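Sync notes, pocket subgroup
Present: LS, DG
LS reminded everyone that the earlier model was apo-only. Rerun requested with WTA included. Inputs:
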Amino acid sequence: MFVSWSHFSCSLKKALSSSFLPALVIFVCPAASHATDSSTVYQVNENFRQNANVQDLSLFEEAKKDREFFWSKQAHNLDWFQPWDTVLEWDPPYAKWFLGGKLNASYNCLDRHLNESASKIALLWEGERGEERSISYDQLFNEVCKFSNVLKNLGVKKGDKVAIYLPMIPEAVVAMLSCSRIGAVHTVVFAGFSSDSLKDRIIDAGAKFLITADGSFRKGKIVSLKEMADLALASPTPVEKVVVVKHTEVPVPMNEERDFWYDTLMADAKEECPPESMDAEDELFILYTSGTTGKPKGIVHSTGGYLLGATMSLRWVFDIKPADIYWCTADVGWITGHSYVVYGPLSNGATVLLYEGAPDHPERDRFWRLIEKYGVTILYTAPTAIRTFMKWGEQWVKDHDLSSLRLLGSVGEPINPEAWEWYYTHIGRKNCPVVDTWWQTETGSIMIAPIPALHPLKPGSATKPLPGVDVAIVDEKGDSQTSGFLAITTPWPSMLRGVHNDPVRYQSTYWKKWDKGYYFTGDGASIDNDGYVWLSGRIDDVINVSGHRLGTMELESALVDHKAVAEAAVIAISHEIKGQAIVAFVSVKEDVFNHPGLEDELKQHVVKKIGAIARPERIIFICELPKTRSGKIMRRLLRDVAEGRVIGDTTTLSDPSVIEEIKLKYQED
Ligand code: WTA
C-alpha cells in the first residue's frame, strides 16, 4: 500500500489546527443488545440426558440456599492433606477460600489416580509431523517426580517463580505439574510471543528459572524458541538457570553456566518426590493477560479455589466421564490451556489429547483426522477456528468418521449463531450439544455455560451462570438492566487473587466501577426473558483477535516505539474469521518521510514487540489523530469511520475537519 499523504501537507495541517479547550468526559456504553428469546432452541438427546453427570437442578438449589456450604461440599471432590476451617473470608476485593486447608495440585492431578488408573492414558500426544506419544498416569507421575527433583537440584524453592516457554509437547504439562508439586509458581508464556514479550513477563514475575525448548514445529517450519529465549535473556533479567527440552533436534547454542539439557538432567534425577503441602491460598501460577494499559497484567491464581473451579466445571459443563478422550485445542500458554488442558482434565483423571501443530498441516482436515484416529469424544475449540473450518468448506470434514464425538465446546469470544449451527451440524452431526462457555483469565474457570442436560441450547448464548456463580447485567450505577455491563456479584473460588505486584491495578481494573463489591468483567451483555445471557464483546479498550486478548494501549505503545511514529491509535474492526482485526491509525514524525515499505515495517515492528498474533491488519497513515480539546484520542470516531457508520458527534474535537480527511484516507487505502 502506497503512502500518499506528503510530509508537507501534514505540517501545514498541524499549523492550521485549533488550540486546546477544557476537558470533556466521554462515556463508552455497552454495545446494544442483539439478544432474542425467539431463536431456535436445541435439546440434548435422551441418551445423553440419562447418562449426564448433572441431571437435575439440585446443584443450583443447594448453591442458592447456601453458597458457601455448597462450595465447601464441592471441595470434597479434591484430595486434601488437611481440611479447611473457614470456607470463605471476604474482605472486598480480597477473597480467601478454604482457609487452613492444605493440598497439592499435582497430587490431585496425578497421585490420587494411581490406585485405580495407573495404567490409564493421561496424555496422547501427536506432533505436526505425525509423531506419537502416549503417556499413562503412572508414567506422567514418574516424569513429574523426576523433573520436580531436577528443579529442586537447580535450586528452585517453594514460592520461586519459574517461566515456561514451550510448545504443545508433554514436557509443557510436566513442567507445570512439577512446579506445582514443589510449590514453585509457574508463569507460562505462549510460545508465539516474541522475545520482548517473554522478557517483560520474566522481569515482571521475577522468574529466576526458565524452561524452554530448542524449537517447535509450525506449518512444516521450525520456530527456534531457544533463539527467542536467548534474545530475551540478552539484557539483564532475574533468570539464573535455563532448562532446554530437545524437541526439534536442531543444534542451538548453549550457555555452559546457565543452560542445561532436560534429558541430561532427567537421566540422573531421583524418582521419588513427595508433593509439597500447600496452603489452599498459596499461589499456583501467574498468567499474563492484556488489559487497558500498555503493560500486561500478571493474574495470580490460588491452589485450592482455582483447582476446584477447573475440576468441577469440567464435570458439569463437559460432562467428563472416565471413558472420554478429551481434546481442548487451546495452547497451554493461555488460561484455557491451564484450566482445560492441564489442571481440570488431569484432576478428573481424564485422557487428554495434545496436538502440537496447525489445523491445516499437511491438509485442512488434520483436526478431523485426529478425532477419527484417537476416537475423541469431547472437542473444545474457539469460534475463530470454527469460522475458518466453515470457510474451508464441508468437503474437508464430510468423509471423516466423527461418530465418537458426543459434546462440543466453544470459548474465547462470542460465537455467532451461524458458526454455532455449522459446528453443531457438520462436526457434531446434530448429535452433540454445543456448550458455549464464557469466562476469563481472571475467573480461572467457566462462569457462564450450559449444563447440557438441563439447559436447552440457544445458538449464540452462553446460557446461564454455573451453580455457585452469581452474575448481573447492570448499568453505570450498578443497577440491574436487561442490557449493560456483565458483573459478577459474589466471590467465587477460582477468582483471581490479585495482579502480581500491583494491588492498585487490581482494585482499579476490577473493583472500582461500582461500590457494591461487584467484579467488573469488561464485557457487555444482555439477558433474555428466559434468563439466558448473551455476550456482546468487550466494552473496554481490549481487542479480541481470534480469541486472544490484546490491549489497544499495548499495541499503540508497540507502534510508537518505532522511530518513525509520532502517534498511534488502534481500534478493532469486525473480521469474518478472526472476530476482530486490528486497524492502526498512525501519524509519522515531522522529520520522517513515509516510504512504501513503512507499513510492512511497522507491522513487523509490532510482531517483534508483542508476537505474530498482534500483527495489524491495516495501518492507515494520517496527519492528525482525532482528539478532544483536552488531547484525548477519540477512538469512537475512528471506529465509526472504519465500520462505515455515520460519524458520531464531532463537536468535542479540537479540529473537526480531521475526521473528513481520515475518512478519505481510509477509503483510499
Ligand atoms: C471473551 C478466555 C463471549 C470475553 C477464556 C472475555 C467470550 C475474554 C467467551 C476473556 C464466550 C471468552 N462468549 N465472549 N463464550 N469466552 N470471551 O482472558 O470478552 O483470554 O472477557 O479468557 O474473552 O479472554 P481470556
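DG: The longest strand covers residues 565-575.
LS: The pocket of WTA is lined by residues 289, 334-336, 411-414, 436-441, 462, 521-523, 535, 537-538, 544, 549 (CB under 6 Å).
Action: DG to write up.
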